[in-house]
Amino acid sequence: MMKSTTDRKMVNSRKHSIVEAAEAHFDKNTLILIVNVVILLCLISLLYMVATSAMAASGSHNEH
């Protein structure tokens, strides 16, 4: 039980230091913008994969 709490503390401190290092170079709003753009690109790629697989599936059924 104690080991997992220390692991969490190490992960939280590591994430915190990464955020602090990034904030030293960028503004907070710039970081939020970058994170949002990355999330948007991931969602667009996921939507593209779903749409192309749906088009392929519907194309194979209409050939009869």
TrEMBL record:
The chain crosses the membrane at residues 31-51. This is Cardiac phospholamban. Keywords: Membrane, Transmembrane, Transmembrane helix.
